[in-house]
Amino acid sequence: MADVKERKGDGKNKYSIIIPTYNERLNIALIVYLIFKHLRDVDFEIIVVDDGSPDGTQEIVKQLQHLYGEDRILLRARAKKLGLGTAYIHGLKHATGDFVVIMDADLSHHPKYLPSFIKKQLETNASIVTGTRYVKGGGVHGWNLMRKLTSRGANVLAQTLLWPGVSDLTGSFRLYKKSVLEDVISSCVSKGYVFQMEMIVRATRKGYHIEEVPITFVDRVFGTSKLGGSEIVEYLKGLVYLLLTT
């Protein structure tokens, strides 16, 4: 057990990985294991922001704390679902790293890409490194044609109207310098899935250096998708809002 809890690091940078959860009991243990597997020589902490999951997600996280250590796995729960954007703000309050990674708990963002994010940032001194499905080497696995067309169409529409400077505006797998995330997040007003789009648009307008890393997005294996018709309407409203305010 002691060897699992032993921390390794290069003595330079620390990374805080914020993972919002709601009913992710079947996924959270595996994604934590994969993060530890792929970041063996990196100093990091995982901050799980759970919005009162009724499926026992928090109990699983507490077991993971016993295995890996409460200094490596931080559970920062909230009483109910309060939105994705506020989950990141809540997690950021507890982050002690120099950099912050935001990623999903449902295994759609594979931790194997984290070393590439870190390497890209170190090579370019980027303020933000974002994963993209829409460059060579990136892609999507497990989506039907209609969902692929919807996602691609949403990105093309946003690219045309907003000129955000990145190829995947709606992606949610990113690495930020902590100070940059604190600055950008303070100027965002959106909640839910629009939050990611507003974040990258605001960062572009502020002149931050953004780099991209190709990733393959994999549709969730366990649990049900939280994206529905209401989120699509919210996205379109958010697009209009950003067009008028940025």
From TrEMBL:
<dbReference type="GO" id="GO:0004582">
    <property type="term" value="F:dolichyl-phosphate beta-D-mannosyltransferase activity"/>
</dbReference>
<keyword id="KW-0256">Endoplasmic reticulum</keyword>
<dbReference type="GO" id="GO:0005783">
    <property type="term" value="C:endoplasmic reticulum"/>
</dbReference>
<comment type="function">
    <text>Transfers mannose from GDP-mannose to dolichol monophosphate to form dolichol phosphate mannose (Dol-P-Man) which is the mannosyl donor in pathways leading to N-glycosylation, glycosyl phosphatidylinositol membrane anchoring, and O-mannosylation of proteins.</text>
</comment>
<feature type="domain" description="Glycosyltransferase 2-like">
    <location>
        <begin position="16"/>
        <end position="184"/>
    </location>
</feature>
<protein>
    <recommendedName>
        <fullName>Dolichol-phosphate mannosyltransferase subunit 1</fullName>
        <ecNumber>2.4.1.83</ecNumber>
    </recommendedName>
</protein>
<keyword id="KW-0808">Transferase</keyword>
<dbReference type="InterPro" id="IPR001173">
    <property type="entry name" value="Glyco_trans_2-like"/>
</dbReference>
<comment type="pathway">
    <text>Protein modification; protein glycosylation.</text>
</comment>
<dbReference type="InterPro" id="IPR029044">
    <property type="entry name" value="Nucleotide-diphossugar_trans"/>
</dbReference>
<dbReference type="Pfam" id="PF00535">
    <property type="entry name" value="Glycos_transf_2"/>
</dbReference>
<keyword id="KW-0328">Glycosyltransferase</keyword>
<comment type="similarity">
    <text>Belongs to the glycosyltransferase 2 family.</text>
</comment>
<comment type="subunit">
    <text>Component of the dolichol-phosphate mannose (DPM) synthase complex.</text>
</comment>
<dbReference type="InterPro" id="IPR039528">
    <property type="entry name" value="DPM1-like"/>
</dbReference>
